[in-house]
Design brief:
Number of strands of chain A: 32
Oligomer: homodimer
Radius of gyration of chain A: 27 Å
Distance between the termini of chain A: 38 Å
Number of domains of chain A: 3
Helix content of chain A: under 10%
Number of helices of chain A: 6
Structural class of chain A: mainly beta
Largest interface: A-B, 131 and 132 residues
Shape of chain A: globular
CATH superfamily of the largest domain in chain A: Copper amine oxidase, catalytic domain
């Protein structure tokens, strides 16, 4: 079906220069509930009590997670490693803890009401074990009649659950601190504030055909995967002159999210949380009013549609896209400009106390000659702090390291990092892309003999296409440099390679020592940018089984020594 | 006059807890045109031909720039250094060039029409001269019937003008490159696009009494100074519990703006532009629709009101201020949140080809227990590139350093930096503030004897109040650290000092060598954060006479060795 619509740019009202042929089905569409159920029935998924059959790593666990579809064909992987935790298992683990007699006894001894206790199972990571069983550790909180669970952590109880046998593998009730006070850390059960009503101007320039979105010069496929969340594929811009779409991004998504805590004590050392969006996907329409909501999402553990899971809206940031005032033309004051408007695809993942707001922000190009097109990934982190109980009521009493910040009496918010890593497979004007580092180097200016320059120095950009993956691991800020992905085979008419610049903020890098098990698993966090030659299997930065990885898979391994392909 | 109004927070509709006593006159208000004219008549300002009297640095130049009012009393400074350039002088200089016979001759020889030439005078900086005269250098462009001046720079002509004698001090017509092509660098004379119509909800919570703004929990004085532009003073937040305003920022404004070019050749080496907003203030309402415009601004060189020079509007960014979804309370799914709304005070300064958008962004605190209040300075840079003509038509022909990037045939956009430095005098809960650096240090975790931790490392924050100005010069990213301004005498109820964190991006630092004259003048640009003990005269980072400074005034000098005051 050919779509012809009016192009929105005001200064030349014309037929849209790039014409798309679209159908409602697309090879990159997510699996439908029907398709998932068909695979499930064909492959005889073990029932939940199938976990009782045996333990140990020799059992070939079947995991829905590894079902992937590639160009309308189905690929089924079998795995000898524990599959990710399912929502049903976590729910069972939580229930089992609250019914465990010793746990109930501990709660009663503290003078608490067991019906006001909420429990949260956490992945256990890998700390050198040879035999790994599917385990979770349980952390519990006291609601005390409020809706604010995380503010009153119950400390001094260690519960480890075996998910294969579905029983308590280890229990220890140790000490009991006073319950944390809520002062300063409580949120109230107040009504949701309605957001401002954005003007719904999307109808004029937004087109949605199945999962393919067209907006201004941009066209992309909006997909979903239960591990990555939102997936942007085949993002392209319309070249007005050449009247064709030019590819920018083949595929982009969140590759890995982890939150290592900086507390080495018994109940905290293992908290290096890996986040799987399939467990936590949240409807993003709370707290703002999107102009449009699309893309029902199948959940792989419980096939079905989650309505309103991704939203698309036009963002009017109040910023200026481009402007100029000119007083240099005699007798005139000329003012030109336009507001910044972008298209946002948003997903929100709630992970226990935290809420992640994950945006893909497409900046429209008013005129490609004045300001370039861009894609921005924006991460918002909100929710409730991660806290633990402490016997101290204030900072002054604590003599040793408390591993965090006092936020209320008997309450410490524990130090931690958040690492969200994006997978970006750029295809700028084709597949043969290269990674270019432009280092800004100081030069002496005294060498100019005639006329001698009164300046002593200046900087110049030294462009270098990096040829080895090991060189393309970047610690941002360690030297003044600009980073780009370029297509060195495609030149502009003045001889510059076509490319997109990677504009970064200053994200954190890991301060853990290299022999610390969490660091062994995610060694790549010592760098903020890593570039690898394309390899279909290299999508998950922490490895395919990130949480229980031994560090033998993942970005750090892939970038050790290989020469990059896709070079001139 | 006491103001009582309804407080906006929805969860407790109550009388506004902090009551203000306001009058329409405020000691920090800008001078009115009437006041400026009164000073002008009292002090016998030299007329424009007064510049002809004599040359050299011995003449006591009277400068309007140095008129400052401190708490309703007037301070007049006399200066033995050249005062800043005035708009009238620059206009005269431009006119004089275009009437200069040799210049006309050069233009005709190039086959150009003199009536299509626009000229821009530039400050000359300081390059070791012992005797300094008030000079500008002129750079000219060929409009060729368009409105886009900067795209066709005319090269090979050097013109220096003496502003004291108002004559051409030096003229050289040298070589002539082909005129740059416009392809790829041209902007079109298209109508201004109207911005989206933001919902005008300001009436409910914005109060303007003279120059004092109240909005949500924030209250501040909005002033103007022809050197700094917008000045935010006495910004305070309402403490709902204590029913009083608590001071955050005594005064904040842009302290210095400079743009050093990285081209050491004859017509470019001196371009290290200092920007004075009084020459360039621009109406910000172009390209977006503010909900409210206030604060007519007196221009000191031509006393009078510039209407709509600053605008105030509520920004609905589309972001989420705070949200949380809770599924851990049995039988409930609880969703809470609110959209991000902030108040923006915006000024736009157009400086030749560049347009600077300078925002002060006040984030409202929905609830001070959940998310803290904040002030953000945001800088937007737009306009047209700074270009020069080159004999080459493309990158492949250039064998030597071209000091920039090819953007069109015969056109190079010259490498340069933009440094915008802010002066922030914080008064967090009073004047006795300190600068705290919290360094994140890696610790070994093996020392825990019982039970031994499976972790090997963690990081912890080591807080240190810096006592010497020399230590409080920070190169961001050189070590993992958080920066705060705290009041160590005011503690929270759990013993933490009250404070505000400085949340930075990764701004540039200067790559020029220390013996380069522009770097001697602005040595502070080797750091991105400098903290000094309060001194009334230390407001302008590049020194009071930044453009002609010898490096003996300014932030780099003030932070060399002094101990900070305001310590416990």
């Amino acid at each position: 079906m050919a779509t012809v619509q009016l192009f929105r740019l005001l200064w030349f009202v014309a037929l849209k220069p790039c014409v798309s042929t679209l159908s409602l089905e697309h090879p990159l569409d997510p699996l439908s509930p029907k398709e998932i159920n068909r695979i499930r029935s064909q492959k005889k998924m073990p029932s939940s009590n199938g976990y009782h059959q045996a333990g140990g790593p020799s059992l070939p666990w079947w995991s829905f997670e590894v079902v992937q579809r590639h160009m309308r064909s189905l690929w089924i992987y079998w795995s000898w490693l524990p599959p990710p935790l399912t929502f049903e298992e976590l729910f069972q683990a939580s229930l089992l803890t609250q019914q465990y007699p010793q746990f109930i006894d501990s709660i009663l001894k503290r003078g608490l009401n067991i019906s006001e206790v909420s429990c949260l199972p956490l992945p256990v990571g890998w700390f050198g074990e040879v035999v790994m069983r599917r385990q979770v550790k349980i952390t519990c909180f006291y609601r005390n009649g409020t809706i604010n669970i995380y503010v009153r952590p119950i400390n001094g109880i260690t519960v480890a659950l075996d998910l294969e046998l579905m029983n308590v593998a280890y229990y220890a009730g140790r000490f009991s601190s006073p319950m944390p006070k809520v002062e300063g850390t409580e949120y109230h059960d107040t009504p949701v504030k309605s957001g401002p009503t954005f003007p719904n101007t999307t109808s004029s320039k937004l087109s949605i055909q199945g999962n393919v979105i067209e907006w201004g010069i941009w066209k992309f496929h909006l997909g979903f995967n239960p591990r990555a969340g939102v997936i942007i594929s085949t993002a392209s811009i319309c070249d007005e002159k050449e009247k064709r779409y030019r590819r920018v991004l083949y595929r982009g998504h969140v590759s890995e999210t982890l939150v290592p805590c900086m507390d080495p004590t018994t109940d905290w050392y293992f908290r290096t949380l890996w986040i799987r969006v399939n467990l936590v996907l949240e409807k993003p329409q709370i707290a703002f009013s999107p102009s449009l909501i699309v893309q029902p999402t199948p959940s792989l553990s419980m096939p079905g549609l989650l309505p309103r899971a991704i939203c698309l809206f036009e963002r009017y940031s109040g910023d200026v896209a481009w402007r100029h005032t000119e007083i240099g033309v005699p007798g005139k004051v000329i003012r030109r400009g336009e507001p910044e408007v972008s298209l946002v695809a948003r997903m929100i993942a709630t992970v226990g106390n935290y809420d992640y707001i994950l945006d893909w922000d497409f900046k429209q190009s008013g005129s490609s000659t004045v300001k370039p097109s861009s894609i921005r990934t924006q991460l918002g982190l909100t929710g409730v702090l991660e806290m633990k109980a402490t016997p101290y009521t204030s900072m002054n009493q604590a003599k040793e390291d408390i591993y965090g910040t006092f936020v209320a009496e008997n309450t410490v918010a524990v130090n931690h990092d958040h690492y969200v890593t994006y997978y970006l497979d750029l295809d700028v004007d084709g597949e043969a892309n290269s990674f270019m580092k432009s280092t800004l180097e100081t030069r002496r200016a005294t060498i100019f003999p005639h006329p001698p320059s009164p300046r002593r120095s200046y900087w110049t950009a030294k462009n270098k296409v990096l040829e080895r993956e090991a060189d393309a691991r970047i610690r941002l800020g360690s030297e003044p440099a600009e980073l780009s992905v370029v297509n060195i085979n495609k030149k502009t008419n003045v001889g510059n390679p076509v490319g997109y610049r990677l504009v970064t903020v200053q994200p954190a890098y890991s301060l853990l020592s290299g022999d610390d098990p969490p660091q062994i698993r995610v060694a790549y966090t010592k760098y903020q940018v890593c570039v690898t030659a394309y390899n279909k299997s290299e999508r998950w930065a922490g490895g395919f089984y990130a949480d229980r990885s031994h560090g033998d898979d993942g970005l750090a391994v892939w970038t050790r020594s290989y020469w990059m392909k896709a070079l001139q």
